[in-house]
Amino acid sequence: MIPMHIEKRTLRVFVIDPDKAEREETSEFRAVKHRLKEDGLYKCYICGSTEELQVHHRIYHMFANLVDFEKLKEFCEEWDIYGYGRLLKNQPITSIDDIRNMMVLCQDHHTGTSDEVDGGTGIHNLPIGEFMMQKLALPGCNPIPQDGESFEGAMERVRQHQKREEEDNE
Q1: C-beta of residue 54 within 8 angstroms of C-beta of residue 107
Q2: I want to staple 106 with a disulfide (CB 3.0 to 4.6 A). Which of 49, 54, 83, 117 is the partner?
Q3: Can you give the residue ranges of every domain in the chain?
Q4: Facing residues of 55 across strands?
Q5: Compositional bias (Basic and acidic residues) spans (predicted)?
């Protein structure tokens, strides 16, 4: 069995959040949501759920006045989750609401689960590696406790997966 250990961290994030006017949904943002639906991509990028969906800005809206749009374009072409980076390669990004900067997430994977005691499951709660592991883990082996699941329950689930793997390899 692969030895397991518990890793618990308290993250403190210090970021300058520029003063901004009250955010309003732009016509570009509404068009992006419509396009994602038309293209069959309106499901959670992490779990595939079609319930309680939200469109997440990969580079947050609060940084709209600070972002280098050429760098954002390069980033969106490198991590081209829906193919729009390639499709729109010859077009500049001039707005934080560009479709290439978006990711559809369910409530649990956007702002987190209803039980935030152990940190939650959302992109706003986890470092990117742990967040993405929710998409990339083997079936039944997600190391992040999910909504309604205790830390101990998640650990037992992962242990059971490892035990089955060992038995299959004997």
Answers
A1: yes
A2: 49
A3: 27-110
A4: 104
A5: 154-170
User: Are the CB atoms for 54 and 102 separated by under 8 Å?
Assistant: no
pLDDT of residue 2: 52
Rounded Cα gap, residues 122 and 131, in angstroms: 7
**pLDDT at res. 7:** 67
C-alpha to C-alpha distance for 151 and 138, rounded to whole angstroms: 18
Predicted local distance difference test score (pLDDT) of residue 45: 97
Q: Which two tokens stand for residue 33?
A: 């949501």
Cα distance between residue 44 and residue 110, in whole Å: 9
Average pLDDT of each block of 10 consecutive residues along the chain (170 residues)?
A: 62 69 84 98 96 94 90 97 97 97 95 64 88 90 81 84 79
Short-list 42, 29, 30, 56, CA closest to 110: 56
- In sequence order, what are the residues at sequence separation of 6 or more whose Cβ sits closer than 8 angstroms to the Cβ of residue 138? 161
